[in-house]
Amino acid sequence: MSWSTLIWAxxxxxxxxxxxxxxxxxxxxxxxxxxxPLSHLYSNETYxxxxxxDHLTHVQPEINMSAIADSVTFSxxxxxxxxxxxxxxxxxxxxxxWPNGVKPDTTGLTSAPATIIAVQKPGGIVDAFxxxxxxxxxxxxxxxxxxxxxxxxxxxxxxxxxxxxxxxFVNGVPQDIYLSAHDGGFAYTYGAxxxxxxxxxxxVANGTHAxxxxxxxxxxxxxxxxxxxxxGPLWDVTLNFRGYWFDNSTQTFTVANGANVGxxxxxxxxxxxxxxxxxWGDQQYDLLxxxxxxxxxxxxxxxDGPTGPIAKNLGRTAVCQxxxxxxVQTSV
Length: 332
Ligand SMILES: *[C@@H]1O[C@H](CO)[C@@H](O)[C@H](O)[C@H]1NC(C)=O
Ligand SMILES: *[C@@H]1O[C@H](CO)[C@@H](O)[C@H](O)[C@H]1NC(C)=O
Ligand SMILES: *[C@@H]1O[C@H](CO)[C@@H](O)[C@H](O)[C@H]1NC(C)=O
Ligand SMILES: *[C@@H]1O[C@H](CO)[C@@H](O)[C@H](O)[C@H]1NC(C)=O
Ligand SMILES: *[C@@H]1O[C@H](CO)[C@@H](O)[C@H](O)[C@H]1NC(C)=O
Known about the structure:
This is Vacuolar protein sorting-associated protein 62. The protein has 332 residues and is α+β, with helices and mostly antiparallel strands. It is 15% helix and 30% strand. The chain has helices at residues 3-11, 16-26, 30-34, 52-56, 147-151, 260-269, 272-275, and strands spanning 38-40, 59-63, 66-67, 85-88, 114-121, 125-137, 143-144, 158-170, 173-181, 184-189, 195-196, 199-204, 211-212, 216-219, 225-229, 234-236, 241-247, 252-255, 328-329. It is globular, with a radius of gyration of 20 Å.
């Protein structure tokens, strides 16, 4: 019996004694929401958060640029192999509007739910992953330095964009925070970040959605690019999210509580979409595709869409996604 079935059984009032004991296990700890980071998107952002449910309606599974089905749903996605690319049905060069997502309102609410995944680890640790999904990564939102800007070239755009922050709690107390940025990221003690109502405040880069601890200019990890952050629209993920637990020993997800649209949608969706190990966007277009060009062998205007939460090292022991180099900084 899955957690979603259990929660449903609870909602319709069957077997109350057994269920109430189980629900206590299924809910996310309250501190996961109490200390959820608040994120400022860029003031001139054009690619806002997207509901994964909405994204799925605009893509089809492809392998080696060939469609293997004309649609994908929450029930078919878990059967897809890791070499699948969920590919836009629309030509991205024609700038369809669905990748623009939904801008948060003045309360920090967007109709695009975030994804919160909690993972219990030895030593009283709970790692809470706050996943941010955007349907498009527009690298040209970052400023191209030096000669490149005169040549009007851009690179690193892709359909689908998974970013995250992670707060490590020890016995319910927030200890460290990790902010993903492109292929890497930065780790800090939780108290090192500025906070609002006790919640760490983070900044999301224009177009690329890399997460930073400060507003301003940041060096992107691709040469020639700078990311920009400022105190633009605030996104409060606790107002609308899908919540899950991940069991590292079995590598399985279970449904926990959610809020708003995410909370309503997740019960019927199951957890199969979190098990999908393929890509959430188009495969890098080849050079014959109109609009594609490459600056070096690896840096092209359009690159591969990213993998999802399951590929982000949820079972990590160190705070960073890449555990081989992880320094937890004590100031920003
Ligand atoms: C935002 O965009 C407007 C119009 O393109 C521009 O004038 C303004 O400088 C931009 N502001 C920032 C902070 O990028
Ligand atoms: C996809 O292309 C690669 C490289 O050309 C090839 O090795 C692989 O067998 C192809 N896969 C499928 C499923 O056609
Ligand atoms: C922010 O991104 C937009 C495109 O989405 C771009 O037009 C603008 O120049 C970017 N601003 C900065 C400061 O890089
Ligand atoms: C999570 O599982 C992986 C694979 O079994 C293991 O290497 C890792 O140490 C586990 N993480 C923790 C925190 O126990
Ligand atoms: C992890 O960090 C190490 C050391 O900086 C680096 O050599 C390696 O390429 C990184 N791994 C990934 C997957 O980025």
